[in-house]
Amino acid sequence: MRSLVALTIANLRSFVRDRAALFWTLAFPVVFVILFGTIFSGGSSEYQIGWVDQDGSPPSAQLRAVFAENAPVELTDATLDVAREQMRDGDLDGIVVVPDGLADAIAAAQGGQPGAPLPVTVITDPSRSTTSQTVVQITSALIMAANLQASGATPVLAVTPESLQTNSLNAVSFFVPSILAMALMQLGVFAAIPLVQQREKLILKRLNATPLPRWTLVGSNVIVRLLIGAAQTVIILGIGLAVLGVEVVGNPLLIAGFVILGALTFTSIGYVIASFARTEEAANGITSIVQFPLMFLSGIFFPLEVMPEWLRGVATFMPLTYLGDALRQTMVGGTPFAPLGVDALVLVGWLVVTLGISARFFRWQ
Amino acid sequence: MTQTPAADAPRRPSPPTDGAVIIVTDARKSYGAVKAVDGVSFEVRRGEIFGLLGPNGAGKTTTMEMIEGLHAPDGGGIRVLGMDVRREATAIKNRIGVQLQTAALYPQLTVVELLQLFGSFYERALPAERVIADLDLQEKRDAQTKTLSGGQQQRLSVALALINDPEVVFLDEPTTGLDPAARQSLWQVIRRLREDGRTILMTTHYMAEAEELCDRLAIMDHGRILDMGTAEELIGRRFKERAVRFSSERAPSDAELSELAGVKRVTRDDGEVALYTSDVPATIGALLELAGRNGIDPENLMIRRASLEDVFLDLTGRALRD
Questions:
Q1: Is the distance from CB of B29 to CB of B74 less than 8 angstroms?
Q2: B192 alpha carbon, distance to own chain's centre
Q3: What residues of A are in contact with residue B100 (Cβ under 8 Å)?
Q4: Do A211 and B93 touch (CB under 8 A)?
Q5: Cα separations (Å) of A197 from A3, A274, B148, B172?
Q6: Is A17 near chain B, with CB under 8 Å?
Q7: Interface contact A209-B69, CB threshold 8 A
Q8: Which residues from chain A sit within 8 angstroms of residue B101, using beta carbons?
Q9: How far is A244 from chain B (nearest CA, A)?
Q10: B70 and A208 in contact by Cβ < 8 A?
Q11: Is the pLDDT of residue B252 over 90?
C-alpha cells in the first residue's frame, strides 16, 4: 500500500512536470472544446421561437411585432405540427401558440366585459432547463405587458407552459460529451507510450529487481490514468457548463461510472498496444492507427445518424461509439444509439477481452 | 574482511557463517538457438568482491540477472542467502541491491524523490539523505535526474542499489563510460561497501578494474566460465615467467634474442619486444650485452609480470579490448 501510494505520487509528479504530456492531455481537449463551441454556437444568442398564430387577427399580428421587437428571439411562423417537428429536430428552442379568439377576448375586455384569460401556450424542453426557463420568462413578461396594454387591469391572456422532449441536441451539447469521450480514449490508448518507454529504457526491469509486486505497478498506472481522466472530465464539463451553456441533465453517478469504465477500457486497450509494440516508435505508430479510426468512425465528430449505412456498421464495433453514446445520453440527454445497458456491456466486453490479451502477451522486459 | 558499523544507523547483523552467499550450480539460459549462459557454476563468499570478467556478449549480465531473479534459468540451481531464487524471489529481492546498466529512471523526479520512491518498495530502507551523503550526491539532491552528468547518474544508480541496506550488491559494468576521476571515486565507493561487510558481485570488461577491485574473478566467454580464482592465481597458473619488454627501432632478430640466457619465448608487437624469461637478471644482463655489441639503444626497458590481459589472451586466443 505504501509503495502504491509512493509510486502513484511519483507518476503524477512525472506527469505534471512533463509539459508536453500536460498539454496534450489537459490543454488540448480544452482548445478543442472551445474551438468547436465557437464554430457551432454561431455567435447568435437569440432564441429560435416557433410562432403559431391560430387567431390570424390584427391584435395577434401586433402581439407578434411586440415579441419580435422586445425580446432576444427570432420568430419563425409555422403551424403547430410543423413547429413541433422542427423543435424535436433541434431547430427551435421553443414554441409560442397564440390561441383562436384573441381578437374577440381583447375586444370584450376593452368593452368592459372580460372573460376568463385565454391560455397562450409556451412549449419548451425542460431538460434544457436554462433555455426553457428563459423562454417561459420572456413570454410571460411580454404577455403581462400585452395584458396591461389591452385592458389595463384584468388579464386577457395567461401563459400555460407545456413541455416537449427534443430529440436532437444542439451542436455544442453534442460535442462536449463527444470530446470528453475522445479525451478519455486518447488518455487510455496513449498509456501504451510511457509503458513501452519504461520497458525500452529498462525502467520496468529495474523495478522488477525490487520486491515491488507487479499489481502495484499496474494499479498505480491505472490510478494515475483515472485521476487524469477525472481532471479532464472536470475541465471539459466545466467549460461546457460555464462557457458554452451546455446543460447537464443526467445522474452524476451514472456519468462518473461511464467515465471510469471508459478510462479503464481504453487504458486496457493501451496495454494491448504496449504488449505488441517493441519500440517507442512502434507504440506511437500503432496508437495513431488505433486512434484515428476510433475518432472518425465512432460518431464523435459526426452524429451516427448522418453516417452512410456501411460506416454505421463499422461504428457498431467501435468501443468509442458506445462510450460517446453513453456520455451523450447521461450528460445531455442525447438520442440513444443503444440502451445504456448495452453501452455498458460493450465497454465491459472490450475491457475483459483486452485485459485477457495483455495478461497473455504483455512482456515486462 | 573488516566490518565498520556506521554509528548513525543500525546494520543488519551478519549471520554467523562465513560461507557462500551466492551458489550457482550449472546455470543455463538460452535465447532461441543462442546459449547465453551455458552451464555456469561458482560461489561467492560473504564479504568479498567477486568479478565476472569477459567481453560484451560473454554471458556476464545474463548470469548476474538470473541471480537477481530477473530471468528464470532454463536449468541448474541458484541460491542467494540460502534461498532458492525461483521460489523465494521476493524475499531475496528485499535483501539484495541491484544496479543495472540503466539510463535515467523517472527523469522528471529529483534525486531525493527517486530514492524515497525506491525506499518505499522495501520492507526496510535507509534514509534517503544518508545514501545521498554516502554517494556524494548532496549537491544534486533536488535536481531532476535527467540533469545529472554520466558520473552522477552512475552514482545515483549505485545509491538506488543501496537504499534497502542490502547484504549483497550487484553492480553491472558500474564504471563503463566514466572518466578516470569518476571511475576512481566509484572504486572507492565499492571498496567502502566491502568494508561495511557487504558482498559484491560485479561484472566488468576492464582488466584494470578487475585487478584493482576484485578479490576473486571468473573469466567468462561464450556463456562459460573459463577460469576462476584471485588475479594472482589466474596469472600464476599460466605464467611462471615474467616478461622483459623494450622497444627499439633496430631490434636483434628473434633467433638472436631467444638464445639469450633464460629466455623461453619472444613476442613482438609494433616494435615492442617481450622476452618471457624465468631468470630476469640473467636475461637483462645478456640483453644489454647484445645491445652494446650491436650498437642498439633499447628504450623503455621494463620488467613486467603477466597480466589478466595475458591470461585472457591465453584462454581465448584473442585480446580483450575496451
A1: yes
A2: 15
A3: 202, 205-206, 209
A4: yes
A5: 21, 9, 20, 21
A6: yes
A7: yes
A8: 202
A9: 36
A10: yes
A11: no
CA-to-CA distance for A345 and A325, rounded, in angstroms?
A: 13
pLDDT along chain A (365 residues), means of 10: 91 87 79 72 68 88 83 85 84 87 82 80 78 82 78 75 67 81 90 87 89 90 91 87 77 92 94 91 90 83 75 86 90 81 94 92 82
For B197-251, what is each residue's pLDDT tens digit?
999 999 998 888 998 899 999 999 999 999 999 988 998 888 877 888 888 777 7
By Cβ distance, the residue of B70, B106, B160 closest to A205 is B70
Q: Chain A residues with CB inside 8 Å of B93's CB?
A: 209-211
Angstrom distance (rounded) from CA B278 to CA A138: 115
Chain B CB within 8 Å of residue A201 CB: yes
Q: Answer yes or no: do B123 and A211 touch at CB < 8 A.
A: yes
Convert the pLDDT of each residue in A225-246 to its tens digit: 999 999 988 988 888 887 777 7
B96 burial level (CB within 10 Å; 0-12, 13-18, 19+): buried
Whether the CB of A112 is below 8 Å from some CB of chain B: the reply is: no
pLDDT at A167: 54
Q: Alpha-carbon distance B308 to B319, whole Å?
A: 10
Q: Cell numbers at residue B188, please? A: 572507492
Return the pLDDT at B13. Answer: 44
Contact A10 B109 (CB under 8 A): yes
From chain B, the residues in CB contact with A21 under 8 A are none
Count helices and strands (H / E) in chain B.
11, 14
Q: Is A156 helix (H, G, I), strand (E, B) or coil?
A: coil
B73 touches B239 (CB < 8 A): no
Shortest alpha-carbon distance between residue A201 and chain B (Å): 7
Which residues of chain B have a CB within 8 Å of the CB of A206? 98, 100, 102, 105, 160
Closest Cα in chain A to B112:
A10
Q: Which of B193, B184, B190, B172 has the alpha carbon at shortest distance from B103?
A: B172
Q: Which of B94, B104, B109 sits opposite A13 (nearest CB)?
A: B109
B190-196 LR contacts (CB < 8 Å, sep 24+): B190/B49, B192/B134, B193/B162, B193/B169, B194/B1, B194/B47, B194/B48, B194/B49, B195/B2, B195/B3, B195/B4, B196/B3, B196/B4, B196/B5, B196/B6, B196/B11
Distance CA B307, CA B235 (A): 6
Q: Mind telling me how many Å the CA of A338 is from chain B's nearest CA?
A: 43
| pLDDT per residue as tens digits for the range B153-178 | 989 999 999 999 999 999 999 988 88
Q: What is the ipTM of this complex?
A: 0.79
Q: Are A244 and A331 in contact (CB under 8 A)?
A: no
| Alpha-carbon distance values, B173 to A48, B74, B187 (Å) | 75, 24, 12
On whether the CB atoms of residues B141 and B110 are closer than 8 A, the answer is yes
